[in-house]
Amino acid sequence: MKIYDLVIIGSGPAGMSAAIYAKRAMLDTLLLEKEYMPGGQVIQTYEVDNYPGIPKTNGMELSSKFAEHAKELGIETKVAEVTDIIPDGDVKEIILKDGEKIRTKTIILATGAVHRTLGVPGEKELAGMGVSYCATCDGAFFRNKVTAVVGGGDVALEDAIFLSRMCKKVYLIHRRDELRGAKILQNQVKNSDKIEIIWNSVVTKIDGDNKVESIQIENVDRHVDKTLDVDGIFIAVGTKPVSELLKGRLEMDDQGYIRAGEDGITNLPGIFAGGDGRTKNLRQVVTAVADGANCVQSVERYLQNL
């Protein structure tokens, strides 16, 4: 059975960057991705204006450029879902959903993160019927309609701004009395005549008959309930890491992020982690790309000592 030098799990910015650097290092590498569309969360980003050298782009376009680069280099890729990893010894084993086993000397976990949910009545029942976690994916369905965005970070502000360009009105619901997103985004939100910020409030219920018709919100200070008639609700309350693989073996923080520094080194020999799934201060495309490069450097050092 073939033994790879490196298998990268995940094809977001960190995974793609790692694959490119691994190819340049002449490592026998396989890139695994469970979705046919590579790119991770960034493909859902409407506007990316902070990636050096590309002043105006969107997540889909940037992801496509990463994928084209990888294709030009001839990087071996496979669409498959990983269900288990046996990390012991100098050769690790990766188990795929179809039962196939892949052997490799090192692994980079670039599995990223997924959207957090509110966990309120109606959210699960009306998912895809007005409840969304991706404004750039579903925003066009709500043209000239009333929508709500839940959250106060960069993604929530970006979603509200994006939706304000097509929706009649956008409510931005935040549980605190000040926003957490970038100042430039805050200014755009506050200067929009289509966006109304509802402070110190949380969504307690989503109502509707086969589609979202209204939401119940509660002011956390005054404990006053209020109903908002909306056609859609976009939930942007952060992410949680995709770190089920090797849970109980890999050291993680209390939120489930894999403990790894900028070098990507984890507590398991030959297992490295990069991107949004590891402990770090800033989760952006540019930091994920850097993680991929750093992980490969660590992989090279590890392989030299085998």
Automatic annotation (TrEMBL):
Coiled coil spans: none
GO cellular component: cytoplasm
Domain FAD/NAD(P)-binding: 4-292
Entries under Gene3D superfamilies matching the protein: FAD/NAD(P)-binding domain
Cofactor requirements of the protein: FAD
One record GO biological process: removal of superoxide radicals
InterPro entries: FAD/NAD-bd_sf, FAD/NAD-binding_dom, Ferredoxin-NADP_redctase_2, Pyr_nucl-diS_OxRdtase_2_AS, Thioredox_Rdtase
EC annotation from Swiss-Prot or TrEMBL: 1.8.1.9
Reactions mediated catalytically: [thioredoxin]-dithiol + NADP(+) = [thioredoxin]-disulfide + NADPH + H(+)
Free-text remark on how the cofactor is bound: Binds 1 FAD per subunit.
Top-level class of the enzyme under EC nomenclature: oxidoreductase
Keywords, ordered alphabetically: Disulfide bond, FAD, Flavoprotein, NADP, Oxidoreductase, Redox-active center
GO molecular function (one): thioredoxin-disulfide reductase (NADPH) activity
Classification via SUPFAM superfamilies: FAD/NAD(P)-binding domain
One Pfam family, short name: Pyr_redox_2
Entries under NCBIfam families matching the protein: TRX_reduct
Family to which this protein belongs: Belongs to the class-II pyridine nucleotide-disulfide oxidoreductase family.
Subunit architecture: Homodimer.
PANTHER family (alphabetical): THIOREDOXIN REDUCTASE 1-RELATED-RELATED (PTHR48105)
Name this polypeptide is given: Thioredoxin reductase
Organism whose genome encodes this protein: Candidatus Anaerostipes avistercoris
